[in-house]
Structures are given as C-alpha cells and as structure tokens.
Amino acid sequence: AQSVAQPEDQVNVAEGNPLTVKCTYSVSGNPYLFWYVQYPNRGLQFLLKYITGDNLVKGSYGFEAEFNKSQTSFHLKKPSALVSDSALYFCAVRDSTNDYKLSFGAGTTVTVRA
Amino acid sequence: DADVTQTPRNRITKTGKRIMLECSQTKGHDRMYWYRQDPGLGLRLIYYSFDVKDINKGEISDGYSVSRQAQAKFSLSLESAIPNQTALYFCATQRGTGGSTDTQYFGPGTRLTVL
Question: A92 to chain B: which residues are within 8 Å by CB?
C-alpha cells in the first residue's frame, strides 16, 4: 500500500521569505517521490522527483525538496518565495513495487503576499 | 504540458447525458491515464492503459468507460452523467519503459459540470 499526506491545506508567506510545503509518505518498498504544481486554470506541471542518491533534489523555478527516510518526509522548499509561486501544490508517491500507480496528497494551496 | 491536450476544456451537461472527454499526446508515450480531481481529495485514478490493447480499471472506475483508439489517443466516457461526477478531469502520459521511476505528464484538464 502507498499513501501521501500533506498536513497543511494552506500556506501563507510574504514575498521574499522562505517557503516550505510539507509532505509525508507511506510505502511498502522504496519510495519514488514527486512534486507537481497547479497554477489557476492550468494543468499539473512536474516540478521535481526523488528516485535515489542525494537527499536534496533541485527542480524547476528554483524549488528543491529534501528526502528524509527516517521521518518519511519529502518537503518542498524555496529559499525566497515570489508572488507568482501562488498555486496548488501536490506531493505524490510511487512504491518501487509498482511501475504505474501514483498516489497523490490532497494538495496545499500556497499564497505569497506582496 | 502542451504535448498533452484535452478537449473540451470546459463542459456543462445535464444528468443522464452521455459525454466523452478526449485526450491526445505527441510525447510518444505508451501509457495513458485518466484522473479526477476533487477539492480536498487530490487526484484519483479512474482508468489507465499500458498500450492500445491493455486497459485497466483504477480506484474509481464505476460510472466511467474508456477507449484507447491509438497510441496517442485515450478517451473517457460518462455513459449517463450524474451530478457527483462534477470534477476536474486530467489525462496523463508516462513513457513506460523506465519502470517505477518514470514521471507522469499531465494535460491542462477538463472542467466538467453535471447539472
């Protein structure tokens, strides 16, 4: 079984401040973890993924995510948020025992105020 | 992702009507998926297809059917639409040869309202 939790429905930050969006996961095998972003009236855009190796993964638009196996977490971060980062963010996990099924979290709405 | 297109982008229909949502891709991927997104629930898998001859039910397939007309086309049908099928529907593609590590790429979505 595989599942993802995003404990915060909403995150509000001021422009220029660090942004963190939290994600925890549960899998039977090894986790493959993904972050997607959905801008208003747009589809889901792939940001980054963790497969193996370095626990800090860098992705698009200045985002990065840190894999923590002991805490089963994969938090998304950006050192300095922009107003244009305001969007809905989804964390997703795939168990290494399957090659197709992605399980998504409920999503976190990020609002960056000017 | 412009490589995955969905039509229509918005649709309003009435209870009991049959409706088809279409997805096309130019990424050359073998695998295609249909998801629905509901507020607070994330995305849930409706159907998926590994190739033209391989179609599988996802976690919420009741009330839906699909057709894989070609490698590049995957359609979702609601035979008799009901209001609780009001949602945002996404098509996605996946290469299929990379195994568990493959990324899924999503279309722009179809917003469906059933009155």
Answer: 43
